[in-house]
Design goal:
The longest helix has 18 residues. About 35% of the residues lie in helices and about 20% in strands. The N and C termini lie far apart (about 50 Å). The chain contains 11 helices and 10 strands. It has a single domain, classed as 3-Layer(aba) Sandwich (Rossmann fold). The strands form 2 sheets. A 6-stranded mixed beta sheet has the order 6-7-8-3-9-10, sandwiched between helices. With about 290 residues, it is α/β, with parallel strands linked by helices. About 45% of the residues are buried.
Length: about 290
Amino acid sequence: MTPDIVEDAPHPDHILDVLSVTKYYPVEGGARIKAVDDVTFNIAPGETLGVVGESGSGKTTLSRIVARLIDQDDGRIIFDGTDISYLSGPAFSQMPKRRMLQMVFQDPLASLNPRFRAAQAIANPVLRLGTPEERRNVAALVEEAAAHAGLPARFLNSFPYQLSGGQRARVDIARAIVLKPKLIILDEPTSALDASLQAHVVQTLLKLREELGVALMFVSHDLNLVRLISDRLLVMHLGKIVEQGSAQAVFNDPQHDYTKKLISAIPKLGRRRGDSGMSRQFTAAPVDD
C-alpha cells in the first residue's frame, strides 16, 4: 500500500532533502547492483550543488530519482516541504508543485520534440502546468524565458535541427525556467558542447541563479567545470557519496583517494603557479553560439 503524501520538511532551510536513497538494478544471473547506495544530501534555496563522478558512479540515476523519472527502492525525497518519495512520474506531474522542479537533459537534440519549434518547446510546460492566466500570456512568458537563457527571439521559430548545439542548449534551459521553478536539475547539460560553448552555458546558469534565485543540482563528470558553478560538491563513486563539502574545500584539500584521482586528472596545461584553475568570469556569451 502506498503511504499518503505528507508535508514533512526535515530542515526548514532546504528546498530538497534526499534521505538514505538506494536504487538497485538487476544484472545477469539474478543478482542486483546498487546504482545508488544509501545517499543523503540536501540543497538550500538558491544554492548550486555540484554532483560529480565518472561514468557509472550513480550520479545520473540519482538525478532521475530526484526528478521522479525513476523510482528509488528505499529512502525518501522531500521537495519544498512535501514528501514525494512514493510518487511515480505521472502522479508527480499532476501535482501543482511539479512546476517548481524542472530538468535540463544531457542531449538537447534528443530531449526536444523535433516537430516543435523552439517557441513551442519552451511553451509546453506553461500549457501543461501553468495557471489559466499564464496560459493566456504564454507568448510573453516564452519570450522572457528565451531572453533569460540568452536565446535571441529570431530563433524561436526554428526547429531543433536548424539550431546549433549551443542554441538547442539554451532552448532546453529556457523551457526549464519558463515557470520560474525553485530547483533545476541539470544532467550533464554541457557534455555535448565544445569548451567555449560550455563556458557560455555555465555563464548563463550563473546569471540565471543570480536573477531568478533558483537552486541548481548540476550533475557532471567534469570536476573542473562543476566547481565553476557550485557552492558545494558531492563526489560519487560506485553509488556512494565518498566526499562532500564546499567547492573550495574539496578542491584545496581533498580527503578521499577517489577525489584526489579526479582532481589529478584535470588538465593543467597553461596553469600558472598559485592559479586555482579556470576563472569564474567569462566573456559575454555570443548570441549565435
